[in-house]
Amino acid sequence: MAWLRMYSAGNGDCFLIEHGLTSVLVDGGYSSTFQRHVLPDLRDLADRGQALDLVVATHIDADHIAGLVRLLAQNGSADLPDIVGVRRVWHNSLRSLVPPSSQSTGMSEGDEELLQEIRRRGYAQAAGDNSPEAEISALQGSSLASLLRTGGFNWNDSDGARPIAAPDHLRLSAEVNLTVLGPTPERLSGLRDWWIGELRRTGVAGVINSRPALEDAFEFLCSYESERVSRKEEEISGRRDTGLELADVYEPDDSVINASSITFILELGNRRVLFLGDAWAEDCQAALGTMRHAAIPVVFDAIKVSHHGSRRNTSPGLLRLVDSPRFLVSTNGERHNHPDIEVLKALVDRPAPFAREMYFNSTTPASRALRSHRSKSGTGFTVYEDYQNRIEIP
Q1: What is the separation, in whole angstroms, between the first and last Cα of the chain?
Q2: Contact between 312 and 250 (Cβ < 8 Å)
Q3: Range of the structural domain that residue 168 is part of
Q4: Total domains in the fold of the chain
Q5: What pLDDT is recorded for position 230?
């Protein structure tokens, strides 16, 4: 039996999946997510003599990696873990995108001061956020990359110097495999080029390499871009008319941070779960379209909906390619107006030979609206809100 748990992660993501003796943690939500919800389960895992076989940081956004920062900060080194063993970590940071430089720092005193200022700011926080999630401020200055490096972790199957990108494949056990759908090398190059442009705009003029101060600056600046894009999306969503269909409101995502999301198919024996991070719908379509399938749509045993159910990351075209009896939507709806009701209706309106289970780790206006919605095709569905229990994948 395989199962997963979708933790209460505010407006973020955090999933623990177990199959037999193999365990995978996908994202970490906020630091409070880790302290309140994930830590007890990891201690239990360790008490059973098990470890995390893989930790995936899908992309650099505080609502996905702050809890992982907390995990590594408290867990100690890879060789001497204080909480639970961590065998592998996937995380695309600057070291994964920029080759080591033969030059020394190549930085002026002014450059160094600017980098230190970026480091002191740390990861972005939501404007006016006084919630417990804001405790990430206690870890400002500690990037995930720096913790992986100093802790000696198996990082991207080595020392972090290569990216995780399509079409990578990883076998964790005889029955647990991962097939990477994204990002493509082109998306990662776009992220690198965008970041270099942002760094230059701050006034840093020196050589760009993968030394620690620049690795920290990479992660912190990426998180600020994610927050800026999220605020823009929230404003647009708040002004939108209601009663529309997905085809009426879909607008492709343009965030280079979201485009860098690690997306993958997780095989658990004969079961398959699709994890879409915050990826662009068009990239997911392209990746799935290159795979050979006996039928369309491809039916997965569960699908983690991209970007918390945003109308910018689930397109009508993507829904023609994939379906599932179980959909997972992770957000509390307090920011960004996620999920969008048009996405939820589009998921359940399609005809299918199975009833669908819609899992939400919180109750949101959209999840409440879905409860009273009747599927256009007549296909049955059940809404589970505030769901914190294990979700079995039979």
Answers
A1: 6
A2: yes
A3: 2-393
A4: 1
A5: 58
What amino acid is encoded at 154 in this protein? N
User: Which residue, 75, 61, 392, 125, is CA-closest to 257?
Assistant: 61
| Closest to 193 in 3D by CA, of 97, 60, 106, 96 | 97
Question: Which residue's entry shows tokens 């995780």?
Answer: 164
Per-residue model confidence (pLDDT) at position 131: 47
CATH code of residue 60: 3.60.15.10
Going by C-beta distance under 8 Å and a sequence separation of 6 or more, which residues neighbour residue 279?
182, 183, 258, 259, 261, 263, 306, 307, 313
**Encoding tokens for residue 152?**
């000696």
62 neighbors 125 (Cβ within 8 angstroms) = yes
Where are the extended beta strands (E) located within 62-211? Answer: 89-90, 169-171, 176-182
Tell me the C-alpha distance between 273 and 303, whole Å.
6
Local structure of residue 375 (DSSP, 8 states): -
| Per-run averaged pLDDT (10 residues), the chain, 394 residues | 93 95 96 93 97 97 91 96 98 88 70 89 61 46 89 96 96 98 97 93 87 89 75 49 85 95 98 98 94 84 97 97 97 85 97 98 95 97 96 94
323 — phi, psi (to 5°)? -155, 170
One-letter amino acid at 321 equals L
Burial track 63-90 (b if 16+ CB lie within 10 A, e otherwise): bbbbbbbbbbbebeebeebebbbbebbb
Answer for the pair 31, 133: CB distance below 8 angstroms, yes or no: yes
